[in-house]
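tool_call: predict_structure(chain=1)
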Amino acid sequence: MAWANTQKWGDNSKPKRHYNLNLFIKRFGDTPMNEISTADLIELLQDIETTHRQRNDPTKPSDKAVRCRGMIVDLFAWATVHEYCTTNPAEPIANAKTSHILETVSYGNRQALVKPNEFGELMHDIKHDNRMGGKYLSLPYATCLHGRKNWRY
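tool_result:
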């Protein structure tokens, strides 16, 4: 699909995004984009919401339908600009994330990887460990900056 080739998806997210795109393609296949209605898109999203459940609680929907809704909105915006369709059937659901169309998804609080008191003890031990000659004193600060791109110390 031409639209997918225009997306700058990272290597980590590419398989999930292609899977989401294939959910759309399986439903509509060779149907011309100008023949797909808003009702068709809502039906697809509700089916996705029904079939894709949270791993830890199968009674609740996952966020798959919400993610697919965002992809469909982007897809039809692109298709409208490039004249694959004359109207955008995804426009009415563009802000439907928390509306009556899809259930609000909540995962609750996720547990921390490290308990705060254990993390504090680790930072204390690193700070007072002289085996490295104080060379790596910035390590506690580096842990706070984890995830930042191109940081220097």
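agent: The mean pLDDT is 78. Proceeding to next step.
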